[in-house]
Amino acid sequence: MSDTGKAVVGRRPLVFTDTDGSQRFVPLSAFEIDANGEIKLTAEWQDTFGPADSPLLVGLATRAREDGEIAAAPEAPSLPAVVFKAAVQGSEGNNIKVMLACPEPEKTTAPAAPAPRKEKTPQLTVVQSEVYRGLAKAADAAKQIGTDQLLEGSGDPIGTGLVQVKAGTAKGEGLPDPYTKLIKDDEEGKVMCAGKGVYFTLVLRKDLPKTVLEEGVQVTVSVDPTAKTYDVKAVYTSKPHAFEADAVIPLTDLPEEITDVVGVSAPPRGYAPPGVPQTVTLRGGGPGVAASATAYTS
């Protein structure tokens, strides 16, 4: 998907007389409609006309549009491009997002030099996140997040998300200290309470995919002293994976850090290049069913 505006269509090119008195024919491909709905010259054609001719030409195209001689090209209907499905069955897949984007190139301090216009390289990133809101005491974390093992008589469930509370550690009083840490396999995230020791301890769920365990999960504990509550957020973010924008099957050879979380399959009509940017959220996961979502062509 191009990052430029909409193209224009019409029956014939525009003809105008430039400031040198020469008659010139300008194809409609020289124009586009920007985000504000106004006609302008495309980047490729802006240098073709001088500062005196460009406004005249844009004005001519604007009047032609008002007279109905040219118009915005109709948008092609969106079609299913690729289906994403959680690698693991269950409701845990319902919080997975697949993001398709074209990041801006990094800015440099080197002198700017003219360069040919190039399409940005699209990238795919997978984000799995979960948030536990409005917790008021340490025991709430064990009940809502779940623990890594059952303790007799505790009544706390086994956690099924990215993180679990280490059984028997949720004994803190009051509110925890704000906390952030990237927790990896075999590491513990000790959330503290000022002057009172450990509030509770978080660990990664042992049956998470290998790459998730190795790359780690970002955990953030934010505190609202006014409401006297705290939230716990856990996020796994894959590294961006670049793919060819116009490939018929655009998402082959995905790295394990993505396929361990989501897989791809063709929609009924087959693969198509997905539109960029877009973000799809997997839904419909439950017992024996993997969450899924479809990315579209535009």
Question: What's a concise summary of this model?
Answer:
The chain has five helices and 19 strands. By secondary structure, the protein is mainly beta.
Please, could you describe this protein's structure?
The chain is mainly beta and 298 residues long. 12% of the residues lie in helices and 34% in strands. The chain has 5 helices and 19 strands. The protein has helices at 43-46, 53-66, 138-144, 210-215, 256-259, and strands at residues 6-10, 14-17, 23-26, 31-33, 39-41, 70-72, 80-86, 96-101, 123-135, 163-165, 179-183, 189-193, 197-204, 217-224, 229-237, 241-242, 262-265, 278-281, 292-296. The strands form 5 sheets. Strands 8, 9, 11, 14, 15, 16 and 18 form a 7-stranded antiparallel sheet that branches. Strands 5-4-1-6 form a 4-stranded antiparallel sheet. The longest helix has 14 residues, at 53-66. The chain is elongated.
The N- to C-terminal Cα distance equals 7 Å
Beta strand count: 19
- The portion of residues forming beta strands comes to 25-35%
Q: Roughly what is the average pLDDT, rounded to an integer?
A: 88
Number of helices: 5
The major β-sheet equals: 7 strands, antiparallel
Order of helices and strands: EEEEEHHEEEEHEEEEHEEEHEEE
Gyration radius, in Å: 27 Å
Overall 3D form: elongated
Low-pLDDT segments: 113-118
* Helix/strand/pairing category: mainly beta
Portion in helices? 10-25%
